Give the backbone structure.
Amino acid sequence: REGSIYSTITEVVEEIGVNVVVLGTHGKSGLQYLFGSRALKVVLSLPVPVLIVQQNSGTSNYDDLLFPVSDSGDDRQKVRFAINVAKTFNSTIHILKEHFSSPEYRSRVNIISGQIAQAFEKHKVKYQVHEQKQSGDFANFAINYANENQIDAILIVTTAGDTPFETWFLKNDEKVIFNKYDIPVITINPVDFGLK
């Protein structure tokens, strides 16, 4: 089939009822650092989760999955997919909470991660809870945690990048997706429920 990679992949996904897309990438190079990678644009255009595998990714099992949790309620949208992967591969999910110095944000992260843990318990999914020790670059902390703990894949919710604030988060998505350790990443595009 011929056509734009963005629209053609989406058409095929919808035509054959794909549940997940596996996308190989060589990472980012040259001008892609300025204008964004094609792989990320494909990921953002798809209506299903995407498993992104880099050239040197070596895992074929998913024993340990990293589930970063920030103050965004969107992280809860990864739960159903994480449960399905964990049940399929008998995985342990590492819930990694972002640390905030603000009590309000810390409380929000605790509530969200508590709800996620309850869902895992309900579905009898093995999990552990860990927390960033101090405020800072959470994307880098998560990547390093994944490397040090031999995580097989990182689950993230992507950000569209329509506003300057979202564009900042999109840079963190890219940092995780094209991580220096070539750890596979599973991306979930959030559903906008229109609630403000």
Q: What stands out?
A: Strands lie at 21-25, 50-54, 64-69, 92-97, 126-131, 153-157, 185-188. The first helix runs from residue 5 to 16.
